[in-house]
Amino acid sequence: IVHWNSPRFHSYLPAGNCFPAICADMLSGVFCNIGFSWSACPASTDLEMVMLDWLGKMLQLPQDFLFSSNGTGGGVIQSSASESTLMALLSAREKTISCIQTMKKDWSRGMITDKLVYYASTEAHCSVEKAGLLSGLTCRLLPTDAAFSLQGDILQAAIDEDRTLGFIPFFVVGTLGTTNSCAFDNVDKLGEVCKKENLWFHIDAAYAGAAFICPEFRYLLNGVEYADSFLLCPAKWLLTNHDCCAMWIKDRENALKPFSITPAYLKEDVEEQTLNYRNWGITFGRKFRSLKMWFVFRMFGVRGLQTYIRKHVSLAHEFENLVKNDHRFEVLLPVVLGVVCFRLKGSEAQNEEMLSVINKRGKITLKSSRIRSRDLYVIRFVVCGKDTESEDILFSWREICLAANKILNSKNEDDRR
Ligand SMILES: *Cc1c(COP(=O)(O)O)cnc(C)c1O
């Protein structure tokens, strides 16, 4: 198997894991209750509501997202960011269709659906495009600036252009911490545009969101007050094992109404008492996943979680400095959290060859990616392992240097020949 929790695993993104999360997962397996309605297991629903409020408070989310505000907002644990984004997209579609049909009485669903268009940046996760493929809705990917960030004026121009062509813009995904390079869209400006144009604004912070529990990184979340929905995955960078994606919706009443059905065999369940999480997602049955969050939060405490995040960020900076101090390499983007995008100053082929040497040695794992807006090949170094230490970073850097020496020496020999 591939050891995702090895301190020398630097591919993809972290897969959260820790002893209390594993215990909670086992207990969830033991209890085996399937919380589709509140009555099916009240503790499952109640704990989930409390955990989403706890995490929301750690993130200083606006009150409207929390159950405790007694407003229309609240959170849910979805199985994945992909599912959360799809649900947000579908909610936005229903909201838009019903809004348009109040004005254009003779327009059918089909006519409206054909005109709908939504936006994200070229750096957004592929799940954003996939949500369009699953739902048959049109996605338009917009170019980013030099820091791989989507800006408000680009979004505004696309909306204006599409409206002129007769399309109906309805949904925007802003990414905080892109999967490729951990870049941040300008959600403050995107949010302003969405508000002005009356579009659903969804923020995907699957990986980076965990860092916002630290006050020094909370500024990255500024603009979340414009969002209609927001997600982060504790299963990525908050020590909770897969699967666990936290999603908040500001107006849950209206967002979920189109998907709410109560079959006859649930009639006796006390529907009115509280909410029924089956209406929030695709599946009917769901695991008791909030136990994992509860155990992790209680075991580490907010301070323990902050310490974990800070350690990963500081290790990423250690790696960044090693790369920057070697003239043969370049770092492509200032490092903000735990992802370092770098490359050999050389051809794409050389970089590919170096990566292949590194991975074939089998001591560390690294992956490449491509920044779509610049058609640029990059190597991603991610601090993943829960127990990664400085010496692992140094070890990994030596592995990279070994491969670089090999590639560059063989090039020099070729040149001499
Ligand atoms: C990992 C990731 C996703 C996909 O997560 P799943 O939970 O596997 O669907 C979506 N968006 C971003 C930004 C990610 O990093």
Characterization of this structure:
This protein has 417 residues and is α/β, with parallel strands linked by helices. It folds into 2 domains: 18-297, Type I PLP-dependent aspartate aminotransferase-like (Major domain) (Aspartate Aminotransferase, domain 2); 302-416, Aspartate Aminotransferase, domain 1 (Alpha-Beta Complex), CATH 3.90.1150. Helix content is 43%, strand content 14%. The strands form 2 sheets. Strands 1-7-6-5-4-2-3 form a 7-stranded mixed sheet, sandwiched between helices. The protein has a 4-stranded antiparallel sheet with strand order 8-9-11-10. Helix 5 (126-135) links the parallel strand 2 and strand 3. The longest helix is centred in the last third of the chain and has 35 residues, at 290-324. The relative contact order is 0.17. The mean pLDDT is 94. The structure holds pyridoxal-5'-phosphate. Pyridoxal-5'-phosphate binds next to helix 3. InterPro entries: Aromatic_deC, PyrdxlP-dep_de-COase, PyrdxlP-dep_Trfase, PyrdxlP-dep_Trfase_major, PyrdxlP-dep_Trfase_small. This is Aromatic-L-amino-acid decarboxylase. Homodimer. Keywords: Catecholamine biosynthesis, Decarboxylase, Lyase, Pyridoxal phosphate. Its cofactor is pyridoxal 5'-phosphate.
Summarize the structure.
The chain has 417 residues and is an alpha/beta fold.
SSE map:
Elements (H helix, E strand, L loop, with lengths): L18 H13 L10 H17 L15 E5 L2 H23 L5 H7 E6 L4 H10 L2 E5 L9 H13 L3 E8 L11 H11 L2 E5 L24 E4 L1 H4 L7 E5 L2 H5 L33 H35 L4 E3 L7 E6 L3 H14 L5 E5 L4 E7 L7 H27 L1
Parallel strand pairs: 2-3, 2-4, 4-5, 5-6
Antiparallel strand pairs: 1-7, 6-7, 8-9, 9-11, 10-11
Helix pairs in contact: 1-10, 2-10, 3-5, 6-7, 10-12, 11-12
The protein binds pyridoxal-5'-phosphate.
Pyridoxal-5'-phosphate binds next to helix 3.
